[in-house]
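Exercise 7 asks you to align residues with tokens for two separate proteins.
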Amino acid sequence: MAVIFQLFIVYLLLLLLSFAAPALHPILYTTLFLMVAVYVLFTVLVPFAKSLLLLVEKLPAPYTTLLVVSAGLYYMAEILALQMKDEGYGALSQLFQTVMKIVIITLWFPSIKQLIETIHSLIPW
């Protein structure tokens, strides 16, 4: 609940800045957004991910961890890409999303390799 109140205060601060210093508003908005995003990441999303991993600890460990990390990376990439698009950098936003998807797939490579090797050993050639 405190995080929601803090986010509302940041919103009011941004409104005040948009009227007080309109020329500096884009840079202040982006800076404040990144600081708040990191704050929310470490105060809300990381504890949520830890709780989620504890909840599903009976499932195979590498897969649940990979799923939670992949979802978190994808969520942060979406937020940052939306920020870039709002500031008028749509092409950079699309590039950022593509790179993040490649990073997520790269995280899954060892598990995919193990799966392919297992399936290959089961198929008689």
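Second protein for Exercise 7:
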Amino acid sequence: MGAQNIQTFDLPGVVDVDAMDAMRELLLGAIEHGDIELDGSRVSRVATNALLMLVSAGQSAGASNFAMRIVNPSEALTEAIDRLGMGDIFSQFIEGS
């Protein structure tokens, strides 16, 4: 990721179906304008659909020649990713993986 045009956002505490609409709109607006950094430190619960949406957002950012990364992933976020066997997929998005 380049130092310019980094957009930073906090993931909500509960990343579920109710939060997905707002997240989708936020990410859609950001994906084509620069790199995205998502702070996952507040996540206490995450739905499988939300993880799939994050993967899709990361791939879409890459298709626009930008990067998306997740920094400070909470234990709950990391456990959900591992429980679903998505560690390899998310390794490209999670800082320090």
